[in-house]
Write a structure and sequence with these properties.
Layout: E1 6-12, E2 15-21, E3 44-51, E4 54-60, E5 70-76, E6 83-90, E7 95-101
Antiparallel strand pairs: 1-2, 2-5, 3-4, 3-6, 6-7
């Protein structure tokens, strides 16, 4: 299982800026190992974010997203203490969900 995501949510004037750093190798399936064999594709395919349980962002990703991807988005109507949850799913079927509280 991948390491926890680093999530920061900061509220200013009723808007929360959410920053997420995901720990994932993101193999495209085009790289070769030392023996010359292709490394199988393994990358995040779906990302979703929720604000107090309501989905506010969904994204479909492909193999072109970089290793350990960074995501930033803004949510209107947020206040300090609100909960943000980020979930990803990869090509192997692994999923991870982490939460943060807005400050």
């Amino acid at each position: 299982m991948a390491d926890p995501m680093r999530i920061r949510a900061k509220v200013d004037s009723g808007k929360a800026t959410v920053r997420v750093l995901m720990s994932h190798e993101m193999e495209s399936g085009q790289r070769k190992d030392a023996a010359g064999k292709l490394v199988p594709a393994m990358h995040i395919t779906e990302v979703s974010a929720s604000h107090n349980g309501k989905v506010v962002l969904t994204a479909d990703w492909g193999s072109a997203v970089s290793k350990n991807p960074f995501l930033q988005f803004t949510v209107k109507g947020a206040k300090a203490g609100d909960k943000f949850a980020i979930t990803w799913k990869d090509t192997k079927g692994d999923t991870r969900t982490d939460e943060a509280t807005a400050s």
